Amino acid sequence: MSKLGFLVALVALAMGMTTAPVAAAATERSTSPVLTVPPPAPSVVGSSTLVRTDNGISATLRTTGLEPGHAVTMWWVVFNDPDGCEAGFPGISRCGPEDAHAGRGGVSPNHATGHVIDADGTGEFGSHLRVGDTSRALAGPGLVNPHGAEVILVLKSHGPKIKGLVADQLHTFGGGCDDQSDAPPGTPPELLGEPGQNDCAEVQFSVHQPE
Q1: Where in the chain are the domains?
Q2: Pairing mode, if any, of strands 201-208 and 28-36?
Q3: Which of 93, 165, 178, 185 makes an SS bond possible with 88, Cβ 3.0 to 4.6 Å?
Q4: Which band of pLDDT confidence, cut at 50, 70 and 90, is reported for residue 19?
């Protein structure tokens, strides 16, 4: 399984990702497609919007094609210093998996929210991340550069609901998962979660570059 923040490695493609910033005072807004994680081939299944202010970032993500009854979490993967990255994809991102592995770009993955998916396979997620808030960070400094950070929203499936573990499935990185080895080193135990029997995987993502 790929690690959070490494999904950009799967987008060496021309998906026509568009970002439309609209600046109003200290507020910036961008919209990007939600893409599936290949194989067989990535496709656009939804849309996400990111709002940046001096105090933090807010995101809404609406998508389709998720497994009904599965627990799905959304994660902020924040590259606070994209200028410090060296292995991004031209036209898509400044930062890439090699940067994350090397600890470049001030990378910090943070739990955003989680839901059990309805019968129609659609999902709506929303969250806010304050500057300096590391309470839900797996690693790194949280968000320190709201206007300049490259932000990747990642959806991770924790598989079908497991009796007694649903809360962990929705609020931790590895809740309900039979393999938690992809957790960043030093992940707090309360964010790692109780393991289970499910095969967990990142299934969709959306990239927001700074203006």
Answers
A1: 7-208
A2: antiparallel
A3: 93
A4: very low
Distance CA 23, CA 79 (A): 21
| Amino acid at residue number 74 | M
At residue 148, φ and ψ (nearest 5 deg) are: -105, -5
Judge whether 48 and 141 are in contact, CB under 8 Å. Answer: no
**Which position has the token pair 């090699």?**
98
Query: Of 103, 83, 102, whose CA–CA distance to 93 is shortest?
Result: 83
H-type helices in the chain, by residue range?
A: 97-102, 166-171, 189-192
pTM of the model: 0.86
- Please tell me the number of Cα atoms within 13 Å of 157 on its side-chain side: 20
- Cα–Cα distance, 60 to 67 (Å, whole number): 20
Which range has the worst mean pLDDT, 21-35, 61-75, 105-119, 191-205? 21-35
Tokens representing 67? 């497994």
The model's confidence at residue 89, banded by pLDDT at 50, 70 and 90, is low
SS3 155: strand
Distances (CA, A) of 89 to 35, 63, 154, 206: 16, 24, 17, 14
> d(Cα 7, Cα 92) in Å, to the nearest integer?
12
